[in-house]
Design brief:
With 541 residues, the chain is an alpha+beta fold. Helices cover 32% and strands 37% of the residues. Helix 2 (33-44) crosses helix 4 (55-93), helix 4 runs antiparallel to helix 5 and helix 5 (99-134) runs antiparallel to helix 6 (164-171).
Amino acid sequence: MRNKNHSFSFILVLAFLAGLTFCAYAGEPEMDAPAVEAEVLAETLAPETSEALSKDDLLNRIKIEKAKLTLKQAESTRNQAKVDWEETKNLFERRIYALDDLNKAQQAYEQADLKYQQAKNDLDTTKLEFLKDATLITVVDAKKYRAEDGRILASVTLRNDSDINKARVVMEEEDREFPESELNALLKIENVVVSLRSGAATIIGDPYQLIIEDLNYGEEKTLTFALLERDVEDITIAIEYLGEEKKYTVYLKKEAVQDLPTITTTQYAQQGELGNKVVYELEFERLAKTEQSFALVVLNLPRELSFNFLDTRSGARITQLKFTGDISKQNLNLEVSIPEKLDQKLVDSEINFVIIITRQAELKNIYALQQKYPDAPIPDEEITPLKGNRTSLILNPKGTGKLEILLANSYKEVKQGEPVSFKFSIINAGTLALRRITPELDLPLEWEGTLTPKVLEMIEPGEKAGIEANITPAADVSIGDYTSTIKCEGYFGIETIEAVDKDCTIHIAAVSNITATLMLVLVLVGLVLFIAVASIKISRR
């Protein structure tokens, strides 16, 4: 029994020695994943290093340490494979090992080297992924304002707010500590693409995209876009960097380069007929947040033309506008009334006038200008120094051309063979002076007629001119009614003004025979006398 125990102990000792020999020959043993993770956790969660780290930082460090250990294992395996290969090569040269043994050793070394390179790449990729997570661009400011040329601009300020502590955890090495400058360089972001959108897709910024070539850690840069939608209140800022796109929906703060409201209109030039009203739709916008009231003034509009500023919703007359932090935009209608009777020099001519919105204190300077030029337009060089925003408008009062034919009696009767004469009038019932008014007769076939005068050189508005018509019916005209049409047209510039046609009915009666009539009358008288005499004689018998 004792000999058996001794034999068993001897076997255990031999097995232990064989194990030590194998370990010495094979180098460090390959650790399984649970053992590695346990060791990394033990090292990472050590009290002296884990106090200032967050949960995410600890997880990142665990993954990086795991990648480092994998790299060390691959390096150790590669080194051992290289030693084996070199020993096998030496023994092959001494003709101890065969060529097949040499090829196997070389192949094992090459595979170990590939695993080492892969582990090295995996470690670098893991670090870069965590650096990417530490990289962040934030929107510091976003506001819109009106430029001097009238465009609505939006400025967006971005900042590189990357987490340098995360970067430090990722890049930390056992044998060296990364300086701040190197960490800052690692967190620099290049080729940042920025665009402004309405909602999710529509780009509303001009240019459509702006590129920031590089944005250093902690650095701020401001980009300026022209808004293609003027009334937009909130926008989506799309920022693309490091292969990803992030979107931030922000409300645009309003800021005014100048405190005065601006005036916008798309109907700056209009025509209006005399006796009608012309409406200009105006938009006033003030981007400043303080509460203030402003006066409305119209300059260089002739006194004959009256005007009113009207609220678009209530129709109330407005002389001042009040803006607050909540009310930054207001719409008004400027209604200009054109009288029916306007100075002829103003008709069909451009009237340039100006709308100004200004503070109450500036009104005294405006009134002084109006007194300086009571009967003449105020020159532009006098208006420009006024403290206020302005817009220029154009009005073209357009007169109406209208001709009417007045005929006192539209029925005439003549005997066969007799001429027809009558008079009619042409009146300028419009508001324009008409030239070369030409009346015309449309007569039945083979009738002839003349008009005196044939042409009227000019008829002023409200004036009329008399025309005499002389018509000769055809020689063989039959008894009956015939229609003669009076036409008339005149000119204003190249525009032709036509009157409504008037018809005149001409009745042709038969010519009477006086001799035959007298003979018939005498016969009848004689017959009556004969009957009377005969009756008397018969009564006497």
